[in-house]
Design brief:
- The chain has 24 helices and 28 strands.
- By secondary structure, the protein is α+β, with helices and mostly antiparallel strands.
- Helix 11 packs across helix 15.
- The relative contact order is 0.08.
């Protein structure tokens, strides 16, 4: 979790959250976003105001603070600190080159501290920037070693966070493979579309192009920099090569991976693009700093570039979901404004600074409105209602049961609901996800992508084995609730099998259910070995394997139900195939339906193969549409029936494509009574209690040598002490923590010791002492 803290929580701005309760968290978020945008403007104004007209600096800093990157990522709070610190480190490097006192050590430390991910990007750019400038200074060797020593000192000062983060990343996110290629992420010329106003929407957030909007006047100023005869060709060559490198990094795969620590971004592409924006704006400011007029041919050339941009945007209007006539008209108008500024105002009137500042500030406001209007946000009242009601329930639950267990819910708001409501759940979104846990839950059928997993796809068996002791359900019978106070329940696939759980307490809008057979987080078992192999895209088979592995019970719990012959409408079965269908007339509606009479009151689960998605067909069960939504491609489970003996299960697939392949579709029947009996017999395990955030305890009695297994994710930082003696820990199911116990009584203490953090603290303290002595 230390890497998670390093990624999300170490910004000094987060202290503001301490003054707000969970219900008012959105207000705190809005305040922090506003402050961080303001500080982006302040830091860049501080840098540019030193060398330029105050109004030019005001215009450039305003564009930086509300650039395309900031608009697209304003809710990714953790990345904005690096955008604030970028101008400061460039300023420190400039001073270093000029042998002036600077704060390179402090800025380097702050970049690593506030967010190591984007901090790495800024520090890498700092190195490139330094190298591009050092050739123009004397005493290159001494200057380089000074820069190197100060950068290393700042990094060592941050050892207390970098060291544990490095080892967690090495065991988790960084251990995943990446498909490397020498090709492009997208055609480079497509990036030109992102220069226009309002070039952003939800699709761009998910899988679009890097956001690099800097306003039309500053875009033309970048071109003017390279045309200016007042600037040495050596400087233009140096800056041009760096600019080309940054631009290629937007789309060339090897450089994309380099900037993003060897991993492709999941959503929010081009996360370093604030660096491209700052450097581009800085080139424009370097041109303005020269205060030299353009020649006539240069003005004509820039006008032709502006015309090319307009024509390119017009031609590609239909190829983009965010380019509209409004966007094009506004972009065209501001290109005209930029041309007027360069051709008739800059260098001809003393009000050129005011003209540029007013022009770009007006454009960034319009761009912000156009971009944000393309997004939809959750209502603050919906969040507050969720926080208030779930917190009320979990507060009651903590009083009702003070042991350590897992809780989950069936409705969905976000992947981090356990944090909001204060319960220990499975659902999680984390860019530093534990990949062993992610792989494990994926194999069991839980919805996931590369950095999130949700409690959708489980069964009573996984509830039992993973210690999900309590469930939160919507109380649809709630009455007399004002519309403004009603919770919003996003519940596309209600798990009918939860009706078998006991009602603990009824709240105004929620129900608290108890799973009586849930294992504690630590339990005694006789593991045959510590290895367990799962199949790919076979969740029911994998759940059974886990059950047999833990309980040593080889009786099957799931049985497969044979599908009857389907009733086809405008379909024919592909000759020589099994459950593969083709449309007879491609323009007419087609469907295949199955009628199954249920012979028991047990639960039934439809296992949808990874090859079947909502793009292929829609699914209806007994007349109700069932969501086939998934994240990454995976097999998933849908609970279709429970306590419905004698009733018909009517399953219908409506085709969206000319063909449909259901050959890997499966229907499973869970023998609920057998599961309950087996778990009651097995569930004679110790209760595990949390003493404090890093210490757990349990009293265990064994009549023979056994394994104390847990569903606590494995980490070498866990120490397990038995009656005062340290035990050797083992990794079981390639995911969890376990130890071997001999016959007898055992006082077990689990202690989480972050060794890398302690070593990092020592290194940071030593570095601080050395720096203080040198200062003295």
């Amino acid at each position: 979790m230390l890497a998670t803290n390093a990624y999300y929580l170490l910004s000094p701005f987060n202290l503001i959250f301490l003054f707000f309760n969970s219900k008012n968290l959105p207000i705190a978020v809005l305040l922090i976003i506003s402050l961080k945008i303001g500080f982006c403007g302040f830091s860049s104004f501080y840098y540019w105001n030193k060398k330029n007209n105050q109004f030019f600096a005001l215009g450039a800093s305003s564009v930086y603070a509300l650039s395309g990157y900031i608009i697209a990522n304003h809710f990714n709070l953790m990345w904005l600190d690096s955008a604030i610190l970028l101008p400061f480190i460039v300023d420190a490097i400039d001073k270093n080159l000029n042998k002036q006192n600077n704060h390179l050590i402090l800025i380097t430390f702050l970049l690593w501290l506030t967010n190591f991910y984007t901090g790495f990007m800024v520090l890498f750019f700092g190195l490139l920037y330094f190298v591009s400038k050092i050739f123009f200074y004397e005493d290159k060797k001494d200057t380089f070693f000074t820069y190197l020593k100060e950068s290393i000192a700042g990094s060592f000062l941050a050892s207390f966070i970098l060291l544990p983060t490095f080892f967690e990343m090495l065991a988790g996110k960084a251990s995943t493979s990446t498909d490397f290629s020498w090709g492009f992420q997208f055609a480079p010329y497509e990036q030109i579309l992102k220069l226009s106003d309002g070039a952003y929407n939800f699709q761009e957030m998910e899988s679009g192009l890097p956001n690099i909007f800097i306003t039309m006047p500053f875009l033309l100023l970048v071109i003017a920099y390279f045309l200016s005869k007042n600037i040495s060709w050596k400087f233009k060559l140096s800056n041009g090569l760096l600019f080309i490198f940054l631009t290629a990094s937007l789309f060339w795969t090897p450089l994309v991976l380099l900037w993003h620590m060897g991993q492709f971004p999941v959503w929010y592409p081009g996360r370093f693009s604030f660096i491209w924006i700052f450097f581009a704006l800085n080139l424009g400011m370097l041109f303005l700093q020269e205060r030299a007029n353009l020649l006539s041919w240069q003005k004509v050339f820039i006008t032709f570039i502006a015309l090319f941009l307009i024509i390119y945007w017009l031609v590609n209007e239909g190829n983009s979901s965010y380019i509209t006539n409004t966007n094009l008209i506004i972009s065209g108008l501001f290109l005209v404004v930029g041309i007027i500024f360069l051709a008739f105002i800059y260098g001809y009137t003393k009000f050129s600074g005011q003209f540029l500042a007013i022009s770009v500030i007006l454009e960034i406001i319009i761009n912000m409105i156009l971009s944000l209007n393309n997004l939809s946000y959750q209502k603050n009242s919906d969040y507050q209602n969720f926080a208030q009601n779930t917190t009320e329930l979990t507060s009651y639950l903590n009083r009702y049961d003070s042991n350590l267990y897992r809780t989950e819910k069936t409705f969905y708001r976000s992947d981090d609901d356990p944090f909001t409501a204060g319960y220990n759940g499975i659902t999680s979104f984390n860019s530093i996800s534990n990949q062993k846990v992610l792989t494990f839950l994926t194999n069991l059928g839980y919805f996931h992508n590369s950095n999130s997993y949700t409690n959708m796809g489980g069964t009573p068996l996984t509830d039992d084995l993973l210690g999900i002791k309590y469930y939160i359900e919507p109380n649809y019978a709630a009455e007399n609730i004002k519309n403004s106070q009603k919770m919003v329940f996003n519940n596309p696939n209600h798990r009918l099998d939860l009706d078998n759980y006991h009602l603990v307490h009824e709240f105004s809008q929620l129900l608290l259910l108890k799973n009586p057979d849930a294992l504690p987080l630590a339990f005694l078992t006789n593991l045959p070995n510590y290895k367990l192999h799962f199949l790919t895209n076979a969740p029911i088979t994998n759940q059974e394997r886990l059950y047999r592995y833990i309980t040593n019970n080889n009786e099957p719990l799931f049985t497969q139900v044979t599908f009857p012959h389907g009733q086809m409408v405008n379909l024919s079965e592909t000759p020589g195939s099994f459950m593969e269908y083709s449309k007879k007339q491609k323009t007419k509606a087609s469907k295949i339906s199955f009628n199954i009479k249920l012979k028991t009151n047990d639960s039934y689960y439809l296992e949808l193969p990874a090859t079947l998605s909502e793009q292929d067909c829609s699914l209806y069960v007994n007349g109700s549409e069932i969501s086939m939504e998934t994240r990454d491609s995976q097999a998933r489970l849908i609970n279709l029936a429970n306590n419905q003996k004698g009733q018909n299960l009517h399953i219908v697939f409506n085709l969206k494509n000319p063909t449909l392949n259901l050959s890997e579709l499966s229907l499973w029947h869970l023998q609920t009574a057998k599961l309950n009996k087996a778990m009651k017999k097995f569930n004679k395990s110790p209760k595990i209690k949390q003493i404090n955030p890093i210490v757990l305890s349990a009293l265990v009695k064994t009549s023979k040598s056994q394994t104390l297994a847990t569903t606590i994710p494995y980490s070498k930082n866990w120490l397990i002490i038995n009656n005062g003696h340290l035990l050797k820990t083992h990794l079981f199911a390639n995911t969890f923590l376990s130890v071997h116990l001999n016959k007898g009584s055992h006082q077990i203490i689990f202690i989480y010791v972050p060794f890398a953090l302690l070593i990092g603290i020592i290194l940071s303290v030593i570095t601080l002492i050395i720096l203080r002595k040198k200062k003295v």
